[in-house]
Amino acid sequence: MKFFVDTADIEAIRELNDLGMVDGVTTNPSLIKKSGRDILEVTKEICEMVDGPVSAEVVALAAEDMITEGRKLLEIADNIAVKVPLTWDGLRACKVLTSEGYMVNVTLCFTANQAILAAKAGATFISPFIGRLDDLNIDGLDLISDIREIYDNYGYETQLLAASIRSANHMSECAKIGADVCTAPPNVIKAMANHVLTDKGLDQFVKDAQDAGIKIV
Ligand code: E4P
């Protein structure tokens, strides 16, 4: 399973990228706002640092305007994936841009039917949002399973990019289901390393090493 980092925070991306934990990056207008940076500048910096796809989202609502914005974003670097919303206009923009050989990430997916349409429109990635469904007491992981099953039934090549990930548990569950990619905030990726028994065991080992005067160098 590939790891994308869901942030526009350059230092957070750098830290994970240096560890080989970054296969790509996803951003959205809210994350760009949080960064306080100009979208074109910050996206360029991310693209220079990361080898894999970097999703940058359009803000227009009409297909023609999304395509124009998408072309502008594509000028930033070769590894840009244009992110469009799962609306009828977004699907039209997706079809045009993918037909020209560009990567498109169709975002804000909340149903299996939406995911089928994105695959038919040639999307490179489909982004179903787990956490925002969980917030409504609908199990977001069920949607990931449903899309996996449907895409496998028909051999759709669109990559299943699990998004709106809120916990380390979401990551392992998505890996079990067979998501192609998970995009998660840096704190969630780092939380995957945590376990209370690891902390407890390490405390004991440190104490015993001190008691026994163990010195290696
Ligand atoms: C995906 O590409 C989105 O940027 C993101 O995962 C949304 O997550 P949120 O629901 O936590 O805002």
From TrEMBL:
The entry's localization annotation reads: Cytoplasm
This enzyme catalyses: D-sedoheptulose 7-phosphate + D-glyceraldehyde 3-phosphate = D-erythrose 4-phosphate + beta-D-fructose 6-phosphate
Alphabetical keyword list:
Cytoplasm, Pentose shunt, Schiff base, Transferase
Q: Which domain of life is it from?
A: Bacteria
Q: Where mainly found? A: cytoplasm
Q: What is its EC number?
A: 2.2.1.2
The enzyme's main class, written as a single word, is transferase
Which pathway features in its UniProt record? Carbohydrate degradation; pentose phosphate pathway; D-glyceraldehyde 3-phosphate and beta-D-fructose 6-phosphate from D-ribose 5-phosphate and D-xylulose 5-phosphate (non-oxidative stage): step 2/3
Please list the residues that make up the active site: K83 (schiff-base intermediate with substrate)
| CDD domains, sorted | Transaldolase_FSA (cd00956)
The record's section on InterPro entries has: Aldolase_TIM, TAL/FSA, Transaldolase_3B, Transaldolase_3B/F6P_aldolase, Transaldolase_AS, TSA/FSA_arc/bac
Alphabetized NCBIfam families for the sequence: fsa_talC_mipB
**Family under the similarity heading:** Belongs to the transaldolase family. Type 3B subfamily.
Tell me, in a sentence or two, what this protein's role is: Transaldolase is important for the balance of metabolites in the pentose-phosphate pathway.
Q: What is this protein called?
A: Probable transaldolase
Q: Which organism is it from?
A: Litorisediminicola beolgyonensis
